[in-house]
Task: structure prediction
Amino acid sequence: MQKFIPFEKLSKKKKKELNAKNRGSWYGINPVTRKPENSKAYNRKKAQKWSDDSTTVPFALLSTQRLTIRGH
Result:
């Protein structure tokens, strides 16, 4: 028969073993709470993509504006 030792007086190793044994399974579900990104927050990656594409956008805008002006 094993001698009873209170949980508080167990070693870290024994506490870890007991906690792991008593802990339930999430069955493949990640318990981390998730929330959608804040759409109003500044996103550096999105800004970088926009600046990379910005070299082609003004030319396209200017060429369409000139066509509409000449068309009048």
